[in-house]
């Protein structure tokens, strides 16, 4: 018996600043985030991306990515994307752009990844208020006479 559909596994999910694809088909994942540092809140994050790799599935699927507020119920951004796997030995790569995202308070926000309404992953991402670093003026530090 040949299966007509096998729900895929999520091999990885990386929250990042941007995803680009090279001419050869390879992906560049830029600015992988373990926290989101902002100078103050509220603030609007102009662009967040989620890079996902799906494996070991067969058929047509709907990926849903949600960015959830610290109250764990308010959906700040949602992105739906269709993809297909023609063979269980293949993989599918998706990149969801979540923009703009209004960050009202510091704390733990959540990223959820679903395929055909089945939760595959949910992870926290902390928003931390950290003023910009004090940097020397352009031209470097002043020298003492």
- CATH topology, by name, is Immunoglobulin-like
Question: What number of structural domains do the residues give?
Answer: 1
Order of helices and strands: EEEEEEEEEEEE
Look at the helices and sheets and give the structural class. mainly beta
Percent helix range? under 10%
CATH architecture: Sandwich
Rg to the nearest angstrom? Answer: 19 Å
Strand line-up of the largest beta sheet: 4-12-11-7-8
Unreliable stretches (pLDDT < 50, length at least 5) are none
The CATH superfamily name is: Macroglobulin (MG2) domain
What is the end-to-end distance? Answer: 85 Å
Protein model, in words:
The chain is mainly β and 145 residues long. It has a single domain, classed as Macroglobulin (MG2) domain (Immunoglobulin-like, Sandwich). The protein has no helices and twelve strands. Strand 11 and strand 12 form a beta hairpin. The model has no long low-confidence stretch (mean pLDDT 92).
Quick synopsis:
By secondary structure, the chain is mainly β. 0% of the residues lie in helices and 58% in strands.
Features:
mainly beta, globular
Write the layout of secondary structure elements.
Elements: E1 9-16, E2 18-21, E3 27-30, E4 35-38, E5 43-45, E6 48-55, E7 59-68, E8 75-85, E9 91-98, E10 101-103, E11 107-115, E12 118-129
Parallel strand pairs: 4-12
Antiparallel strand pairs: 1-6, 2-3, 5-10, 6-9, 7-8, 7-11, 11-12
């Amino acid at each position: 018996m040949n299966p007509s559909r096998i729900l895929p596994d999520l091999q990885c999910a990386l929250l990042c600043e941007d995803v680009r694809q090279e001419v050869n088909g390879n992906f560049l994942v830029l600015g992988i985030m373990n926290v989101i540092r902002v100078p103050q809140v509220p603030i609007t994050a102009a662009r967040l991306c989620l890079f996902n790799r799906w494996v070991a599935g067969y058929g047509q699927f709907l990926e849903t990515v949600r960015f959830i507020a610290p109250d764990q119920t308010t959906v700040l951004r949602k992105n739906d994307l269709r993809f297909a796997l023609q063979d269980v030995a293949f993989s599918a790569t998706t990149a969801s752009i979540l923009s703009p995202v209004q960050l009202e308070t510091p704390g733990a926000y959540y990223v959820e990844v679903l395929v055909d309404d089945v939760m595959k992953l949910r992870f926290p991402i902390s928003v931390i208020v950290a003023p910009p670093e004090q940097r020397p003026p352009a031209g470097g530090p002043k020298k003492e006479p």
